[in-house]
UniProtKB/TrEMBL annotation, chains A, B:
The keyword 4Fe-4S does not apply. CDD domains: AAT_like (cd00609), WHTH_GntR (cd07377). Residues 1-69 form the HTH gntR-type domain. In the C-terminal section; belongs to the class-I pyridoxal-phosphate-dependent aminotransferase family. Keywords: Aminotransferase, DNA-binding, Pyridoxal phosphate, Transcription, Transcription regulation, Transferase. It comes from Halopseudomonas sabulinigri. It comes from the Bacteria. It holds the Pfam family GntR. This is PLP-dependent aminotransferase family protein. The lineage of its organism: Bacteria, Pseudomonadati, Pseudomonadota, Gammaproteobacteria, Pseudomonadales. SMART domains: HTH_GNTR. One of its GO terms (molecular function) is transaminase activity. The keyword Transferase applies.
Amino acid sequence: MKRYEEVAATIRQRMEHGLYRAGDRLPSIRELCGEFAVSISTVQTAYAGLEAERLIEARPKSGYYVLPRSAPPVLPGVTRPTQRPLDVSQWDHVLNLVGEPGAEHVISLGRGIPDVEAKTLKPLFQQLAALHRRGHAAGLKYDSLAGSPQLREQLARLASSSGCLLHPDDILITTGCQEALSIAIRTLTVPGDVVAVDSPSFYGSMQILKAHQLKAMEIPTDPQTGISQEALELALEQWPIKAIQITPTHNNPLGYTMPEARKRELVALAQRFDVAIIEDDIYGDLAYRAPRPRTLKSFDDDGRVLLCSSFSKTLIPSLRVGWIAPGRYRDQVMHMKYVSTGASATLPQLAVADFIGQGHYERHLRNVVRQYQRNLDVVLGWVQALFPLGTGVSYPQGGFLLWVEVKGLDSVRLNERMAASGIQIAPGSLFSASGKYRDCLRINYTQASSPMYDALVTVSREIALMQAEQAAEAV
Amino acid sequence: MKRYEEVAATIRQRMEHGLYRAGDRLPSIRELCGEFAVSISTVQTAYAGLEAERLIEARPKSGYYVLPRSAPPVLPGVTRPTQRPLDVSQWDHVLNLVGEPGAEHVISLGRGIPDVEAKTLKPLFQQLAALHRRGHAAGLKYDSLAGSPQLREQLARLASSSGCLLHPDDILITTGCQEALSIAIRTLTVPGDVVAVDSPSFYGSMQILKAHQLKAMEIPTDPQTGISQEALELALEQWPIKAIQITPTHNNPLGYTMPEARKRELVALAQRFDVAIIEDDIYGDLAYRAPRPRTLKSFDDDGRVLLCSSFSKTLIPSLRVGWIAPGRYRDQVMHMKYVSTGASATLPQLAVADFIGQGHYERHLRNVVRQYQRNLDVVLGWVQALFPLGTGVSYPQGGFLLWVEVKGLDSVRLNERMAASGIQIAPGSLFSASGKYRDCLRINYTQASSPMYDALVTVSREIALMQAEQAAEAV
């Protein structure tokens, strides 16, 4: 970290801790030069950075002042999905989003792709190149079906940061988190079964239900605290639910993290009704505050939680290295893993194990999390400034996805209209079995660059145009 | 190829074409020196090699003579599996084989692993290293769900060699052939359905049936011409069969290739009963004679054949690059691919596309196929010399797997007894739903080295010991 970054970080921390509050005058440049033993230009650069982040403002001839932090904007209330098990639809729209990679140099607002150009990834590429160049036989045959022991050891070690005591043998490596979710769901269900899900819910797991003729019971979800336990309990009483599939930490798409107490209650509820929980923790490590939140799995004392995750959101998606900690279902999950794709590719696993073991993973996380957290404030500001009055916006506690609600908007049509300009958002309807949340959209804020700003300007203009057309039609 | 190899190859070819027949005296060393314009030692080395392969023998003071080629040993007759749909068992024994990779420097006789140390693979490792080192963003995000266009173009081009006219869009990339088979079966069935299979049949696809609660209808199979059409027709009349899952070219484990006329008839039969065919072509490119055999897919005029394959047997297993040409089921298979593992890893696909495009794939195939073909003769000789009289052995037309039948043998127990010596074979019972073929074993002949010979000596001694114990017990 450079000197001016250190100075900025300290000031930022003091604001977070309430030492400097909104409206306070900050120490003068000269005072800080003394305190940190740095040059005037270093302090000036630090203050300029904080100004760009909209955390402070310079008042001519007076100094720097702490800006009021915009109140976390939240969605109006708990979501209200249909209160009965539904077939999942929406595949065509999901395919439209995931079928093809975005063209290069276009900012994809729609997909959940991390910053793959972060400099802290470099040791990973070096290790991947070195392993492939060597091409030694051990890494070229079929790997252990459970996955490389080296990687499972590192994962067991990392799991302790989310409150989990896992042995390497409690973990199976998968082809991304998608395979982990897919084999978990297939292990627990047969066609016609009902799975309870948070709502809105990740389209990837919803589509697994569709492909295997399962029904989704969408549970009302609070955009700040997560799935409603009361509604879930009612559903468990009323329907023969086989599993609860949920993303309780840095939820996709809503960004919330369920409070620990509610996580504990959820596991207890699952115990009471004897159902399994499939926990998607793919964004879990991208917490804006240390330590990262605990998983449901950490409260699981009878092996009913199947924890699923991957490095697709923390490192790079195309590695296709994911994992599952399947608890009491280990044998069935191992069988399902074998029949689905056999053993996973070895060399990416070894490269990641090395990357973690040498401390690069934690360094990389610190780097990108700082970037995403700063971007959140910037992009939130942009959305509030550009989008129609009354727009609801989520307030993520980790990850890099924002959920935006514009009353009356048809986000599927919005997407179609923007196709020509090469901008794609994820329409909210993908996140519902029956296509609800059509007035919402999910955007990715891994970048807060000027192309990103331009893209948001284009989106907001198109929305305004659609609203004007709607108003004209209504007359 | 070195000069002495060229000389040996020409002599071998002349024997194959019948120019030199069993018992013939071969040209003298002096004559060949003249014909090939090489040194005496070159010809001597060539003849020594052919002698080691048991193709010729030196008679003192007389010269070199062509040895009688041992008649292709075949299994006694058509297999006789149970004639009703069965649940698949045997997972524990399969897991024993596929759960862990063999220790280094141990020759694994059991698994279907190609020679991953072949020199002609080198450009692949170089390209993989180069692509990973560069780490440019396009290859790091999620790939096209169908797979990289570059690779699909190369695959469409290669398909013409098996008589198939495929467009790149007819092909979807998968995580190895296992995923191709898995999504094909899941697309076509629901739990309780019946799938017809050749018998013996690849344990990997049999276990897919088990995991998804499907029943296997095992069809009698001729070790030279494949699945019995008559028995299959009877089964199709009698049972509600949803799909036929079959490996008609360089069959695993029997090694046969169905004659073209029978392939054509099989497709016609499937049309008459309106069932789909899942064709496993994973060993198809490893043909001992050019051109490689045609696929069932090449006779498919209404899109009912789902062709599945990968580079796990031709290049290296740990690439996990496979594909499926799903015909009329493309949309459902694409959906199933998405929910199973999402888009596949990009860089391995790009490396393979480049390897094929630059002609390395065809060069590599020529290299390893020659090696496997030579090894077959050597290993066949070893098995005939070492194993009990009356041992049946398959006569593969491609690939690198031998099927050995020893009347009265318990191959599962044989495996257990050899565990301490670090030698593993694939017991025949893995290849049957109900554990038939327990007196058979499958061995891999990618190597015909002295450790391989030693391993076969150990296996045959253990078999002799077991037979002696059995005889003693019977007294």
